[in-house]
């Protein structure tokens, strides 16, 4: 008999005699995440409870435990810390769960939905901690396998963290998983994951390349009628340059995406650390300003934390289809819809120039062009009038 628990069935439950389950944050295809409290240490935590269908799968449970232990050993500011794991909830004696660091903020997906495509300095600010965290895991022999905006958290203090290491591998080990199901999110899968299910550090690099394209343009590079159609496109199609979807993307970012998403894994950056070095080089070459990534204002995590959730503005609608007339090279205020949805810069400078001067300089340049054109036209008219007068009176002068 399949047990189906209601919307608040686990809220208030005590897991392992220690973790009090609070309000639900989000529900996915394989798990549900709750706010929680470690009553022994009196600290807030996040509790990820896996779906009931995994409760009796011994292959999954074994892999789940191994992956949780491996990830718990990793230490990096860009990784969401894993504190504990267990089996058993009030719904089912073997239902597995993870206890993790609670990141007060929201997901990168929610941020993109609220604010749309990012300018280059914001993209670099997201990629650096993500690639640093992946690099630490890669050097420890771990692969994420499912790099996507939903698995990147933005904290209220500007921290960027990667979550859900090892879960894809654990799910793949489950006996209930069909061999013809492509695991991971189709939009970000590498060609080798689609082809035979194999994944290495270069597979995560491919996912970050697709993520970079999306951050710059507001959408993923491939589309189709089904997840399989989207996945199979990358077997023989290159990811297009971001500048083909939105004008003004620096050439360096086109090259970064092309290198990260090469069809052959051997042609990509070797791992997260290798790609992070490339991002640092680009940021230095373009003199990109430092940037504090904002947390989404109306994330599910923030809403769950409210004692009485109030109505909140609808998230920003997805951007229109790619159009070459879109421009990346816009003034700072063009990146916002109101004062609550602006990508804020830390230094207030770009290329050594105060950002507030960009608009003034551009307006001044336009005025100077108009003035010079007026002067040229006036001088041309004066010369023409003088020539006409002299021509008509040359006989009298002689």
Automatic annotation (TrEMBL):
Transmembrane helix recorded as keyword: yes
Biased composition (Pro residues): 308-324
UniProt region (Disordered), positions on chain: 298-338
One MF term in the entry's GO annotations: kinase activity
Any Pfam family the entry gives: Pkinase
Domain Protein kinase, residue spans: 19-291
Keywords, alphabetical: ATP-binding, Kinase, Membrane, Nucleotide-binding, Transferase, Transmembrane, Transmembrane helix
InterPro entries: Kinase-like_dom_sf (IPR011009), Prot_kinase_dom (IPR000719), Ser/Thr_kinase_AS (IPR008271)
Stretch forming the signal peptide: none
Transmembrane segments: 369-390
PROSITE patterns: PROTEIN_KINASE_DOM, PROTEIN_KINASE_ST
PANTHER family assigned: MITOGEN-ACTIVATED PROTEIN KINASE KINASE KINASE 20-RELATED, SERINE_THREONINE-PROTEIN KINASE YBDM-RELATED
Protein name per the record: Protein kinase
Lineage: Bacteria, Bacillati, Actinomycetota, Actinomycetes, Mycobacteriales
């Amino acid at each position: 008999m399949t047990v189906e628990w209601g919307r608040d069935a686990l809220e208030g439950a005590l897991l392992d005699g220690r973790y009090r389950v609070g309000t639900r944050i989000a529900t996915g295809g394989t798990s549900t995440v709750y706010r929680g409290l470690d009553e022994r240490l009196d600290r807030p935590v996040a509790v990820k409870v896996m779906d009931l269908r995994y409760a009796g799968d011994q292959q999954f449970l074994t892999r789940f435990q191994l992956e949780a232990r491996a990830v718990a050993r990793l230490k990096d500011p860009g990784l969401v810390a894993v504190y504990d794991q267990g089996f058993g909830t009030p719904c089912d004696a073997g239902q597995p769960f993870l206890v993790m660091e609670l990141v007060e903020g929201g997901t990168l997906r929610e941020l993109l939905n609220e604010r749309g495509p990012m300018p280059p300095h914001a993209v670099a600010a997201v990629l650096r901690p993500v690639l640093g965290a992946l690099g630490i895991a890669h050097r420890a022999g771990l692969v994420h396998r499912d790099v996507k905006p939903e698995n990147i958290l933005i904290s209220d203090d500007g921290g960027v963290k990667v979550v859900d290491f090892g879960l894809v591998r654990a799910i793949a080990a489950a006996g209930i998983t069909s061999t013809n199901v492509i695991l991971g999110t189709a939009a970000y899968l590498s060609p080798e994951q689609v082809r035979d299910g194999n994944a290495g550090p270069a597979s995560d690099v491919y996912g970050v390349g697709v993520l970079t394209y999306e951050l710059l343009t507001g959408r993923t590079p491939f589309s189709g009628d089904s997840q399989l159609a989207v996945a199979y496109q990358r077997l023989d199609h290159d990811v297009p340059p971001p500048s083909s979807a939105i004008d003004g993307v620096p050439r360096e970012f086109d090259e970064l995406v092309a290198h990260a998403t090469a069809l052959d894994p051997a042609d990509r950056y070797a791992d997260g650390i290798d790609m992070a070095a490339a991002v640092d080089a680009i940021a230095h070459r373009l003199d990109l300003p430092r940037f504090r990534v904002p947390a989404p204002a109306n994330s599910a995590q923030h809403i769950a934390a409210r004692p009485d959730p109030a109505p909140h503005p609808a998230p920003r609608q997805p951007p229109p289809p790619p159009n070459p007339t879109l421009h990346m090279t816009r003034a700072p205020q063009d990146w916002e819809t109101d004062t609550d949805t602006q990508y804020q810069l830390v230094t207030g400078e770009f290329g050594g120039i105060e950002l507030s001067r960009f608009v003034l300089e551009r307006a001044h340049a336009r005025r100077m062009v108009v003035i010079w054109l007026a002067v040229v036209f006036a001088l041309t008219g004066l010369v023409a009038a003088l020539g006409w007068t002299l021509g008509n009176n040359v006989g009298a002068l002689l």
